[in-house]
Specification:
- Helix content is 41%, strand content 22%.
- The protein is α/β, with parallel strands linked by helices.
- Strands 1, 2, 3, 4, 5 and 6 form a six-stranded mixed β-sheet that branches.
- It has one domain (2-106, 151-172): Maf protein, CATH 3.90.950.
Length: 173
C-alpha cells in the first residue's frame, strides 16, 4: 500500500505512517512525502486558511503521483475569544472518498501569537524562545510547551486516526 503525504516534514510523514498502519492493521506501508504547495501563507492565521492549505496540498499530491491514500496536514493558529491557539487540519482521500479532520488545539502564549501576527512562523518563534533548532521537524511547539507530554507527531497521529473514521466505517458515511 502506498501513502503520499503532502510534505517532506518527517513529523508529518511519520504521523501518517503510524496512523494508517494502525487503522488498516498493516505490518508495513510505503509512505512518502512530496513537496506540495499549500497556496496559503507559510503561517496560516485562521481556520479557513489552515483548512484550505490542507485541501490544496492533497489536490496537488493527487495530480502528481499515484497512491492508495493521500494525506495532508496543515498547521495553523487563530485568536479565539479565550486566547490564541495552534491546531492542524487533516485532509485524507483514497481518490474516491475524502475526509477532513482537525487536531486538538493548544493554547499559545500571547507573546508568541504577537510575533506570528508580525509575520513570523510558529516554529521560528519557538526556536528563538526555547533556544532550539528546527523544532517544527521535531517535537514542535506542542512538545516544547507541554514538556514533551505531547508532541506535534502524537497530535497529528491522533488527528489522522480520527479523520480515518469514514474509511473505517464507510457504510455509515
Amino acid at each position: 500500500m502506498k501513502i503520499v503525504v503532502g510534505s517532506k516534514n518527517p513529523v508529518k510523514i511519520n504521523a501518517a505512517k503510524q496512523a494508517i498502519t494502525q487503522v488498516l492493521s498493516l505490518a508495513d506501508i510505503d509512505c512518502v512525502g512530496i513537496d506540495s504547495p499549500s497556496g496559503v501563507p507559510d503561517q496560516p492565521m485562521n481556520s479557513h486558511e489552515t483548512q484550505l492549505g490542507a485541501l490544496n496540498r492533497i489536490k496537488y499530491c493527487q495530480q502528481h503521483i499515484d497512491a492508495d491514500y493521500y494525506v495532508a496536514i496543515e498547521g495553523g493558529v487563530e485568536l479565539f475569544e479565550y486566547g490564541p491557539a495552534t491546531f492542524a487540519y487533516i485532509a485524507i482521500t483514497d481518490g474516491k472518498y475524502r475526509s477532513i479532520g482537525r487536531s486538538s488545539m493548544m493554547p499559545l502564549p500571547p507573546k508568541v501569537f504577537q510575533a506570528l501576527e508580525k509575520g513570523e512562523e510558529l516554529g521560528t518563534v519557538m526556536d528563538k524562545l526555547f533556544d532550539t533548532k528546527n523544532v517544527k521537524q521535531k517535537q514542535g511547539a506542542i512538545g516544547l510547551l507541554t514538556n514533551g507530554l505531547a508532541t506535534r507527531e502524537s497530535i497529528y497521529t491522533q488527528a489522522i486516526i480520527l479523520a480515518m473514521a469514514p474509511f473505517i466505517n464507510s457504510n455509515l458515511f
